[in-house]
Amino acid sequence: MSVDVDEVLCQCFFAIGSGAKMPIQGDAVAALRDKYPTHFQTVFQNDANAWNLEGHFVLEYCRSIGSLAAHKATAQGATRIEEQEVLDASDAVQIWVQNRTKKATRFCV
């Protein structure tokens, strides 16, 4: 079964928005869009079943990015998430996951 990276990214962006529960600036979404597709494509080329095995984890990872980015934004009094907040949140969640699992996961970049 072939995995459509664009469909996976749409699910990820939906999960980020679900975690954020506030507007996300377009350049913030574009920064994430630029960060993940090539990596995801490589994962799927190496294991077509990867999304079936780990998709639930990836979506929770994305929700956490949205939630943390929202926290960073509201701590500054902002009413929307900017690019740097979402990138900082992405890095922080990745570091947390890697420290907890003691290894890099396939979907973390």
Proportion of residues in β-strands: under 5%
Q: Do you know the CATH architecture?
A: Orthogonal Bundle
Kindly, what is the distance between the CA atoms of the first and last residues, rounded to a whole number of angstroms? 24 Å
Query: How many individual domains?
Result: 1
Helix content, binned percent: over 70%
Please provide a written account of the structure.
By secondary structure, the protein is mainly alpha-helical. It has one domain (5-101): Helicase, Ruva Protein, domain 3 (Orthogonal Bundle). It has helices at 5-20, 26-35, 37-46, 50-75, 83-101. Helix 1 runs parallel beside helix 4 (50-75) and helix 2 packs parallel to helix 5 (83-101). The longest helix has 26 residues, at 50-75. The mean pLDDT is 89.
Quick take:
The chain is an all-alpha fold and 109 residues long.
Main attributes of the structure:
109 residues; mainly alpha; Helicase, Ruva Protein, domain 3; 74% helix
